[in-house]
Amino acid sequence: AKAGGRGTYRRFNAAMHAQLQAHQQMKLTMRDALARGQFELHYQPLVSLQTRHVTGCEALLRWRHPERGMIAPSEFIPIAEETGLIVPIGAWVLQQVCLQASSWPEHVSVAVNLSPVQFKHPKLVKAVADAISAARLNPARLQLEITESVLLDESEHNLELLQQLRELGVKIAMDDFGTGYSSLGYLRSFPFDKIKVDRTFVRDLPEGKESLAIVRAVAGLGQSLGMMTTVEGVETEDQLKTVNAEGFDEVQGYIFSRPLPASEISKLIADGPLR
Ligand code: C2E
Ligand code: CA
Ligand code: CA
Ligand code: CA
């Protein structure tokens, strides 16, 4: 291809245009996607390092688009947040996961991601309470995963909201720990039940010295604060050995399983300890 000049500009422009169109298209079709049953939840197991049993599963949203096939959440959730559609979609997710978990053995919990937009919505507490009671789920089996970006600041309002959710009997996990700005401040002001280390800190284990230092520090922090510690994105045997040696409670990663449709995850839970 020719470098530079008008041709390059035109191609770039065309690519930008196509991307913008795809974005617009997604915005429009997402409006009916929920009613048309195009969203589905996949579940990825969290495995106890002690027993190798599945302790819970994280629900991960997928959009089965009629023309585009399966769309990943990284592609459509930002758009759903922009339009506000994440609120009804998120309420549906909460209902689904509670129903799903109620079909699993009592010791298996379910984790669900909350978007900052959902968190700011005045009906969040009610949406969670309704989902739990409709499914008659023991609330202690529901874990809400919240990132630092959800909270943004340690405001009284945010802490109050976390407290209200906690009073429903659900568990609160700090997700993507270490990737935001205020993780440490938050751990001081709110007693999370669990800390989840983001997979960006696992990727270059066991060689990465900096990552290892961080992962080790978080494991220690969790232990001294009495919070469960989970590490996500474990793919290799060496990574598993490393996080095991650091004393994490649970592991989530491709080494045990990719996210699976509900029917397959039920089988995996029933099959007993993994590896
Ligand atoms: P997350 O909360 O950090 O979820 C973990 C992501 O890491 C998932 O990606 C999962 O498939 C992936 N993962 C887990 N283990 C491994 C591994 O060993 N290797 C690799 N390469 N990846 C691994 P996924 O499903 O694409 O979800 C991406 C993000 O989308 C999630 O990140 C979460 O922030 C968001 N998301 C997913 N479902 C929902 C939802 O229902 N509501 C909201 N608000 N956000 C959601
Ligand atoms: Ca998560
Ligand atoms: Ca996340
Ligand atoms: Ca993550």
TrEMBL record:
KW Ribonucleoprotein (keyword) present: no
Domain of life according to the entry: Bacteria
Membrane-spanning parts: none
UniProt keyword terms in alphabetical order: Coiled coil
The EAL domain, residue ranges: 23-273
Signal peptide: none
Protein name per its UniProtKB record: PAS domain S-box protein
Species the sequence originates in: Sinorhizobium numidicum
Residues of the full protein shown: 799 to 1073 of 1076
